[in-house]
Amino acid sequence: MLTSDYKRCPKCRTMIFDPASKLGAMSHPTPCCGTSGQPRFIWPSPETLKFLELVGNQDLSNQDGFRIGIVFLSSTLELLLEDSLREQLWRHVKTADLTDYLLQTVRGRDSRLRLYAAPYGMNFKGVMVSLGKVAFLDLWDKLAAARNEIAHGKYVMGGKITQNELVQIQQECLSVFAVLQNHASTGKPYVPTA
Ligand SMILES: [Zn+2]
């Protein structure tokens, strides 16, 4: 059973930290806008949670497990970025067709990070600096470099990223993306607790 400590408000789409699953009861009001009576979205998607679970199932001290962890954690972040970008685009372009078109045509991590940051008039690193999350971006850059080495047939073991760094990304990725999304939607990098 895949579970997450986060949910998305069905009304204002704010990310909510809900470790005690209080929002499982539809009568419990959301802490963002107080909506009740509607099912709340579990976030992230089941696919994303499955990738995270696969990372968690690896023995990262083992070379093969470490490589598999790099690949699946990279896929996790790609899905989280696509989800964030979809929310970001929807807010700005307001049409599903244009949002889908942009997601289909703007591929690759660097292009997508530029598109994500474009409404802020800065690059993605600038956004992460303003949120106090640039250390996470540095780790994500290392992970992307390790993933590229594997994609190009090179064997990786701690050359681009260490086991501890990989675990840190695994543990922080949901909280970082929840902050990013609430910053984009409310202007405040704050994730309310249910
Ligand atoms: Zn709300």
Please, could you describe this protein's structure?
With 194 residues, the protein is mainly alpha-helical. It has one domain. Helix content is 57%, strand content 5%. It has seven helices and three strands, in the order E-E-E-H-H-H-H-H-H-H. A three-stranded antiparallel beta sheet has the order 2-1-3, covered by helices on one side. Strand 1 and strand 2 form a beta hairpin. Helix 2 packs across helix 6. The radius of gyration is 17 Å and the shape is globular. The two termini are 22 Å apart. The model has no long low-confidence stretch (mean pLDDT 93). It binds zinc ion (ZN). Zinc ion (ZN) binds next to loops. The site of zinc ion (ZN) has 8 residues, from loops.
- Secondary-structure-derived class: mainly alpha
Give the total of beta strands.
Answer: 3
Q: How much is the average pLDDT?
A: 93
Low-confidence parts, pLDDT < 50 over ≥5 residues?
none
Number of self-contained structural domains: 1
Element pattern in H and E: EEEHHHHHHH
Shape: globular
Largest sheet properties: 3 strands, antiparallel
Strand order of the largest sheet: 2-1-3
**Portion of residues in helices?**
55-70%
What is the gyration radius calculated from CA atoms?
17 Å
Give the termini distance in whole angstroms. Answer: 22 Å
Residue share in β-strands = under 5%
Molecules bound to protein: zinc ion
Number of helical stretches of at least 4 residues: 7
